Amino acid sequence: MMLRSCYRCLGRRGGGDGLMWHTDLKPHASGDYSIAVVQANSSLEDQSQVFTSPSATYVGVYDGHGGPEASRFVNRHLFPYLHSMLLALSLPLLSIGITEILSVFSLSKLCASTVEFATEQGGLSADVIKKAFHATEEAFCLLVKRALPVQPQIASVGSCCLVGAISNDVLYVANLGDSRAVLGRKIFEDSKSKVAAERLSTDHNVGDEDVRKEVEALHPDDAHIVVYTRGVWRIKGIIQVSRSIGDVYLKKPEFYRDPVFQQFGNPIPLKRPAMTAEPSILIRKIRPHDLFLIFASDGLWEQLSDEAAVEIVFKNPRAGIAKRLVRAALQEAAKKREMRYNDIKKIEKGIRRHFHDDITVVVIYLDHHKSSSHGRVKHNAVGCINAPTDIYSLSADEAEDVMLHPVP
């Protein structure tokens, strides 16, 4: 069965804030999900997507830095790499490689039954996820190599990468950088139902002492591998995150030594790669008291603690919950400047980056009864929603909500 028909509908602008986009509530295999994005940079550097099928849900949050190119690249390529590897696992008798698969299948042309089969057979694994991350990294490096003569700055563009997958009641969380996944878990205290926050991802940020020591241990002969400058710790005085897709000038000597790149930026003295694209991966069985998951770029976590975020989700209605979290973060950002949110939302993109970062939030509810009528994803349907590439110039091609219906 191949996927034939495709329907699009847009999310909505965020009531009075022209730089916010959101979709209130959509179904996935075991509950509902909600997305919201607010733009602060001149070009939106955050990208995000949710892919749903009858038995699996995939979430991606990609926080770019240095420009939007890397996060947009990851948004277009990581899920197709992941799904093509699952497809390869389900076709063991065919002599076909990942490159050939990708030349035939895109995310919008996947055979839904094949992905389902691979997922149900336990095809998803930490190894498969790592290979998809590495394939995305290598593909972006190839793009940088080709573009370098005309666009040397692309060698300094990168993206954090946070991916969640739920399959067969098992949760996978893979992360590069400092976007974060947090679980809201029900607890009972004094006979009252409350919620506890459980962080599921590792912040790869050298502001964290353990991460800083990890980087320093890998570079014992470089006293300046991590430098405190402009109020924070940075690798080579440049970047705070230690893992990413891209940032090839801090990973591969052929780029930071290239005369074309050196005309764009100062030479970086490196004896070995200063950053990696090796994701941290957590695998965890979903338990009865697990209520919801929050996947968000660091723009949210700079303003809200894990505990504050899960309290907001726990105490409020589902519809529009991601937007509610974004607004709570913006209110905190405004408070730090002795302003109101109404003042901040009047500020134009670019200038607004002085007040807060781009923020992306995806909330996934876990309802633990996939086979019930609550599971509104049709048994034979695959869905994909991508947040807009740039909110200020929102168009039908930049924000698409696709329900793909396989036809026999």
From TrEMBL:
Cofactor: Mg(2+); Mn(2+)
Keyword list, A-Z: Hydrolase, Magnesium, Manganese, Metal-binding, Protein phosphatase
InterPro entries linked: PP2C, PP2C_BS, PPM-type-like_dom_sf, PPM-type_phosphatase-like_dom
SMART domains cross-referenced by the UniProt entry: PP2Cc
PROSITE patterns per record: PPM_1, PPM_2
Family: Belongs to the PP2C family.
Protein name: protein-serine/threonine phosphatase
Species of the source: Xanthoceras sorbifolium
